[in-house]
């Protein structure tokens, strides 16, 4: 990742989270609202850290895999490398960490157009 995103806002969210812990969670009158806010800040921080880790930008495109047209117990999605040919015999099923990639309906595919734009030059 050449250009970390969300660095400033993550720092501010972490500071806000610390304030909530110190000020609101210690006050019995604010404890319930403070706990809810702390949990929401934890989620927001986690999501932004995930985006930062994988260099996901707001301009990234997200595709949600639909339910397949053929729904049988053995039908599934597979990710393949086509080796620049339409000859299916030469296609290779993609693996990550030695495991075939078999996404389920509802899985997200994120296309990071920001990364493609900056590396293509």
List the helices and strands and how they pair.
Layout (H helix, E strand, L loop, with lengths): L6 H18 L6 H23 L7 E4 L15 E2 L10 E2 L1 E2 L2 E2 L7 E4 L1 H7 L2
Antiparallel strand pairs: 1-6, 2-3, 4-5
Give the spatial strand order of the biggest sheet: 1-6
Q: How many strand segments?
A: 6
Helix content: 25-40%
Radius of gyration in whole Å, from Cα? 21 Å
Estimate the mean pLDDT confidence: 88
SSE sequence, one letter per element? HHEEEEEEH
Strand content: 5-15%
Largest beta-sheet characterization = 2 strands, antiparallel
Low-pLDDT stretches: none
Structural class: alpha+beta
Quaternary assembly: single chain
| Terminus-to-terminus distance | 16 Å
Shape: elongated
Number of helices: 3
Key words describing this protein structure:
single chain; 121 residues; alpha+beta; two-stranded antiparallel sheet; two-stranded antiparallel ribbon; 3 helices; 6 strands; 40% helix
How would you characterize the overall build of this protein?
This protein is of the alpha+beta class and 121 residues long. The protein has helices at 7-24, 31-53, 113-119; strands at residues 61-64, 80-81, 92-93, 95-96, 99-100, 108-111. Strands 1-6 form a two-stranded antiparallel sheet. The protein has a two-stranded antiparallel sheet with strand order 2-3. The chain has a two-stranded antiparallel sheet with strand order 4-5. β4 (95-96) and β5 form a beta hairpin. The two termini are 16 Å apart. The mean pLDDT is 88.
């Amino acid at each position: 990742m050449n250009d970390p995103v969300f660095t400033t806002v993550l720092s501010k969210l972490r500071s806000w989270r610390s304030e909530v812990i110190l000020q609101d969670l210690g006050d019995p009158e604010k404890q319930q609202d403070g706990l809810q806010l702390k949990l929401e800040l934890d989620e927001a921080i986690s999501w932004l850290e995930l985006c930062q880790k994988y260099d996901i930008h707001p301009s990234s495109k997200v595709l949600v895999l639909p339910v397949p047209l053929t729904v049988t117990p053995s039908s599934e999605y597979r990710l393949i490398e086509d080796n620049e040919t339409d000859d299916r015999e030469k296609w290779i099923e993609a693996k990550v960490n030695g495991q075939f990639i078999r996404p389920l309906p509802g899985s997200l595919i994120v296309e990071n157009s920001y990364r493609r734009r900056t590396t293509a030059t």
